[in-house]
Specification:
The chain has 206 residues and is mainly alpha-helical. 80% of the residues lie in helices and 0% in strands. The protein has helices spanning 2-14, 22-44, 52-93, 100-110, 112-116, 118-122, 130-139, 144-157, 163-166, 168-197, 199-205.
Length: 206
């Protein structure tokens, strides 16, 4: 989420915008998938009551493996980005001429999301365009938290709790994600506005 919001904020600022709500729209798109999935699970929970324990075990394992694998892969790519930016920063402090495009070239060459999601980010020209992108991220079910929420929803629904009450779980999940991602978007905006005052600040920030 941080990488997606960071990339979109940088792109929209380059286009002359001030994308205050990028993180909020991304969170709303992601949360939409979670809310729909929880509603379906809650509705059909009675039919999966006997296999609920298996669902918890398998869901938790898949969530952990996918989330950790995804994050470790991004971390490996970002390590190369960090090393490249660090070399450029050290060269700049030694008096070497700094070109603003140098960092962009480094990040475009090694960045995991920049490489695989460039066609999607190219379509983002307004903050609300992050909603469908967040929705696509949500379809990956790549967070252990979401998998755990599905299990909790199913377990509560099979205990005879009404669907309206069960939907409190995804509502709180959506509120928490919206708060976290909206805050992240505001911080990214502030950081890049600070960095764009002086080109070398951008190198230091990255």
């Amino acid at each position: 989420h941080i990488a997606a919001i960071d990339n979109a904020t940088r792109k929209l600022m380059k286009q002359g915008g001030r994308p205050v709500s990028v993180g909020l729209w991304f969170a709303l798109g992601h949360s939409t998938v979670v809310v729909i999935a929880c509603a379906l699970i809650g509705f059909f929970a009675a039919g999966i009551k006997d296999s609920l324990e298996d669902f918890k075990d398998i869901g938790g394992l898949i969530g952990t493996l996918v989330s950790s694998g995804f994050l470790l892969t991004i971390g490996l790519f970002n390590l190369f980005v960090f090393l490249g930016v660090r070399r450029a920063f050290q060269a700049s402090r030694r008096g070497a001429q700094y070109c603003e495009e140098d960092v962009e070239a480094i990040m475009a060459k090694h960045g995991f999301l920049a490489r695989f999601l460039r066609p999607l980010f190219a379509l983002v020209s307004k903050s609300w365009h992050m909603y469908p992108l967040g929705f696509l991220f949500g379809l990956g079910f790549d967070t252990a938290t979401a998998i755990g929420l599905f299990s909790m929803t199913a377990a509560t629904a099979t205990d005879g709790v009404s669907l309206a009450t069960v939907m409190v779980f995804p509502a709180v999940f959506a509120a928490g994600m919206a708060l976290a991602d909206a805050t992240d978007g505001a911080l990214m905006l502030g950081a890049y506005e600070w960095a764009y005052v002086d080109p070398e600040r951008k190198l230091f920030y990255n």
